[in-house]
Amino acid sequence: MTSEKESNGLDNFAFALEGGFCDLSEKGEDLDSSIDEDTNKLAYCVTDVPPWYLCILLGAQHCLTAFGGIIAIPLILSQGLCLQHDGLTQSYLISTIFLVSGVCTLLQVTFGIRLPILQGGTFTLLAPSMAMLSMPEFRCPAWTQNASSVNASSTEFTEVWQSRMRALQGSIIVGSIFQVFVGFSGLIGLFMRFIGPLTIAPTIALIGLSLFDSAGSSAGNHWGISSMTTALIILFSQYLRHIAIPFPTYSKDKKLHTSPVYIFQILPVLLGITVSWLICYILTVYDILPAEPGQYGYLARTDLKGEVISQAPWFTFPYPGQWGKPTVSLAGVVGILAGVISSMIESVGDYHACARLSGAPPPPRHAINRGIGIEGIGCLLAGAWGTGNGTTSYSENVGALGITKVGSRVVIVASGVFMVSMGILGKMGAVFATIPSPVIGGMIMVMFGVICAAGVSNLQNPKAIATGAVEFDQMLQVLLTTSMFVGGFFGFVLDNTVPGSKQERGILAWNKAHEDDSCETLETGEVYNLPFGLTSYLSSFSWLRYVPFCPPGLSSSLEPKQPLGTPDPGQIMIGVGL
């Protein structure tokens, strides 16, 4: 069911925060007594539609939450593509990945898993991509490492980086086809029978190592600024979340009056980044931050990319094949496949976490199949557009749901629209690119918690692999230098070979969490049925009940509760019912 709310905006929202919450507790489940009751209540559930201005603000916050991860990917990838001294091309890559991430987010929320889960570039593909680009045939020429030698407009330099990008594109496209097949065929359910928490824990932990390394590098450019960003977000989300700020609003009954709004609870990340960004701007204007490159704190300045902003076009329209015809590398394909498998495992965990945090019942298998299939399509689009990466569900945005207590998927739709706009408006993407790296590093640090030890990567020795078959050596090198594959593979082998009952391995509890569709707030069909009346229309085709990504029982239990074409007032935002 959807919570009934009047259209009086912030007044309504204040009422929700004072007591009109969605209850997330499931039937027969005892919640940990150490968790505060408020953490199990939502201001807006998955099917609720907040006021339009809250959708805009919260959508912007989700964009900024994902911004650090999304923008970090092309910036890190540019080193392997020999683009570290070409800021303008980096801005094009950033625009492309934002556009594709926005499109994939809209596809996922509308036709995929249908949960408030944002899609963006994935670090699971970044690791094998960098491993592939580190092979001898892809190493950057020495002259590209010197800024004074790089002529971004020269044909030679263009071919250097675009040839590497095309090789990445081909590998990502082939890997994404595998993910599409696994999702829509329902094989992901078969995989999950053999995958328990002992496999998932090291896999996801090692995926995070890449992000923590990037966060540490960015934060280390000015630990004071990054620590301030982290402290502000913690302050707003944990210490000030119960403080209401009077906000002027208007209604026909009360006329102009003030309503309490828990602004620190719903916008902690946006506020933290904005305050830190503003402080960096002030420190830059008054030349408190060092102006000489190489000095500590120089990268905290906000005027470092001013030239890129002036050079960037107002409008840019990324398109498939913009860097040329993709090529395929066997070593690249094998490495990308390892990343794709890790991404699918992580996404299934994200689906269940997102469902719980948004007031939805646990996702049924047909919805998971559809979600993984749509993610595969997203990776296919990312490969075709030439982002040098794929797309996946963003864990940090799932975590943001728990902080803001707003689980509406319409907010994520707004985020998708924001990201598409940022991909098209070249100047907007360039402006956001001026956020100092210490601010981004501090934001990523707080979203992922403490940094994990990354010493395992120092044990790698690529020269030790010499079987005599060059392509086989390359394939092994990419796999064994991809941390999450090594961790996930050995976790999988040990989980399924070391003697132990299903209860000891955690499989029973894991399967119960995945298969228990009980929920006190929403019916499964309300969340996971196809949009725009498609479920009702497809009910006439009885054979579709055997398709893995379609809802079961189409012909019986999923009849519409109101005539087709009659929109539900609570499901409409800007003329589109979701």
Give a brief outline of the structure.
The chain is mainly alpha-helical and 578 residues long.
Radius of gyration: 24 Å
Q: What characteristic shape results from the CA principal axes?
A: globular
The overall pLDDT, averaged over residues, is 75
Unreliable stretches, pLDDT < 50, 5 or more residues?
A: 1-21, 23-39, 450-460, 555-578
For the report, how would you describe the main beta sheet? 2 strands, antiparallel
* DSSP helical segment count: 23
The separation of the N and C termini measures 14 Å
The side-by-side strand order for the widest beta sheet comes to 1-2
The multimeric state of the shown protein is single chain
Return the domain count.
2
Percent strand equals under 5%
Query: Helical amount among residues, as a percent range?
Result: 55-70%
Helix-strand category: mainly alpha
Number of strands: 8
